[in-house]
Amino acid sequence: MSMNAIDITGNWESDVLPADRLQTREPEVKQGQTTVFRQRLQAPAGIHALELVYWPDQDSRLGKAIEEKFDGFDGLSINGSSVRVAFLKMEGTREGYRALVQLEEEAQGSERELQLALTLCASRPLHTRLIGDVGRNEGGGVYQALPPISDGQLAIVRGIPFHLSELNEFEIDDLVKDSPGDRGSLHPWNDGMTLPCYGAKVRTAHFLGMIHSIDVANGSWFSPKGDHGYSHFVGDKAGEIAIRWTDGEETVVPLVFGFNMWYSRAWDMFWHWWMYGQYIGHLDEQMFSGRDDGREIVEEAVALVDGIRAMGSLSSNARFVFSVDLGEREVESISLKDDPLLYGHPVVSAVTLETAEQCSELPMLPDLGSVKSARKPVSLEQIETGDWQDRVERLQKLLYTYVDELPVLDEPLVPDGYFGPRYRFEGNPDSVYAATFLYRNGPECAAYIADNGTDCSSSTARQAIPHYIYGMGIWFGFDPVFGSLDNWFKLYRERSPGELSGISEAWARGVGELLREAMAFGYDKFVRSYVDWLDNALFAEANPPHWNRIVGRSCYTTYEVEVGGTVEKGVRENDGHGICMWGRYMVWHGMGRPADWNEQHFAATEAAVEWIEWQLANDRIRPGVRKDVLFTESECAHGSYDIYSSYNCLHGIKLSIRMAEQLGRTELAERWKQLYERLRQGILDHLVDPSEDGPIWHTEEDCYWQDHAHKLVPIQLATEGDSYTPLEDWASGDSMDRTFLEISENSYRHLMRSENYNCLRMFGYGQGMMTQSALLLDRMADAEKFLHLMLTHTYLPHLEGWAAPEGIIVHRSGQYYLPVNGYMGQDSHVADSTKAVRLLLGIDDNDPGHLRLVPRYPADWTKMSISEYPVVTGQTRQSISYVYDRGERGSASEHTFSFELQHPVDRLSIRLGPYPPDTRIERACWNGSEIPFACIDSGDSRWVWASHLSGKSGIIRIVGV
Question: What per-residue confidence (pLDDT) applies to 890?
């Protein structure tokens, strides 16, 4: 075998690198600290140089690993002598630096011993190669290769020589669009690969790689609904190794995540969390929140040792070594196959056979005489008996939450230090879970609202998981902005506006939703200072003034585009902009619609509308076509158009018109009404698609939100300023209202064609939005199923209990699940899921002069009560308490609803239900006297309205047959 280099990156040893198991501990090496890496080997005679390569993007900052000594690095020693080297910048698009050390010449034809030491301010070594002619192996241990088709690459990994087709490091940015390719498989993958072994008598077979070609942990948001092909749970089969013996028998070695398959990038991110082009942190100390048995469970289950454990966290096709003891049996061939349930395939980049005697048909590999090779061999008996399975199951129990682990609650769990509305729901386990969810996540929403933004991640949760496709179930601890939820309660009570700072950042898409929830639950102490910060950002960060994707984050303020004679500055996150608009309205409304506040903040209200007007006025310039809908740069529309972005702005205009009218801005309000109608018509003209269910709202096929629940944004936003009963109110509206309602109902039917109620992987954008839509469309059977899945999968015992992450991935078996994102309680997601549960309460105070109570509890909940719940009546906020008693198992025979307000109201309507559609209502009584009532069929149920009521308290009794 003649090659011109040997990669020895995977041959470095350190004090923390174990020889017989996976390395699970890697303390951070801080400035002023160093790690010494060593290796000893017999270099072939033709080797004449040593190469070191430094990649800055695999370091925590430029030059840290080599202590900024680019010109005079002195951390290398050869045979005890220090060698000073210079790192020179390499050509190419990726920044990298290379140092080349010439070795002393030896007598011709003789090997030399190299004792190498490398001292770095890093926990992993640099990429290292020996340069020169490798030559042949003439003796020592018998290592033979199952060779690649091409010349390939030679590497010494943990003392074992391997012949690879190539060393391949990669990063997956887009699951669906990034073709996995072979990722450096030993042979090109063509529904597998078969490697002839020619009857070699094999002691041990060593397989290098042992990752998946789509090296992610789960499909996260980015896979279509119901598609499990990108999710790699521990215990799932990724393929198999089939060993055919010369006697015709075959042994199958299953390739199973958590046994002999593992994650490269998702695993290494704990020691080098690199995302979006920047280093985020080193999480060794925080792994498992300090729970040491977590690491031990991983070590015991995973039958691999580290291969090339290079700096950084790129996926590597030489990351792990799997060794199988074949007992000196004669092997005809080794085949690798994938699993049809998963996209992509297992990556094995090299196979080395340690043979009992030389097989002449197979090339020999050089034995460089390094220290004893690292290995964790698995015997054929272990594979046949499956004794590894118990350890893998233990690992599954560590990483995932099992549905049957859901605790049985007789009473809702109330956080320490809690104050706010009270809830008690009875009838089935979901009813108690719903109350528990509100107790946790109502305040959680409010904890995002400080004197300025608190970012998109929870300000109170103390545990998290690396986000999106890299969440494998391992959690880590961290310090949130406000320490914990119980500490936030303390801070809220003790601090005054101006004394509770966040971090001055917030995603625009979450801002309005969180303001809405904070107001709804009565946590309004800091909303004024928060909106002041938000309004200041509107003018300071973009031109024409608008809200960027992340309010307060400087990178978005530098985004510039020339539009006519104007320099447009800032990204077009129109959905986030519209959400900020209507979120401010909900603050104003929740405060009792104070005119002075409206006046003080009207400059921002006006500028926000003008941004929409300016875009439509200049759309022939950018994007270059007249459509009367909004060109958007967002997760929902990547430089395109969709219903979610345009409708949020449409809704923001509608509510801004009301604010203008209060201040007597009649001319301005009339102009905005024309803008509203223009955008409204544009939506009908350009954002409607044909379908088998009739015309439906347009969402982008390649958007991030693959449940497409945001098609139903017109229904979801009905509650923000308008109505909790859009089916009834829009049906009696103008012709365009009825058209919007018809298209929304078609869109709902279209999304429900598969009758798949699992939208959890999108959580707020999926399960939350679909639950809201089902409730508001009075599809109570659907709503109950959506709600059940949400409530029974938000129990996350390692992550604050009843949390609301960015997504939850349920295993295809339905038996267990994991959160997919590190934001344990993430802005839009916690807001949309919390709103979904809050809608059950039915407090519709959108009209200050007409309070409407429209509870929508599942039919088999028997008794529901709330107290101290905020409500807007007239120009003030007061509180309401009620008890809704529906008898045994939600019987239709008699429902009793009693309520009490702090102050009387002049106009009150109450709708009760749901009843089965064939229920006959006999009578309704108000405080013991019969009153007129109206029965309506809406959605899949019958409902009873009692209208023209008034007072401070009262009891309604509905008697059905």
Answer: 54
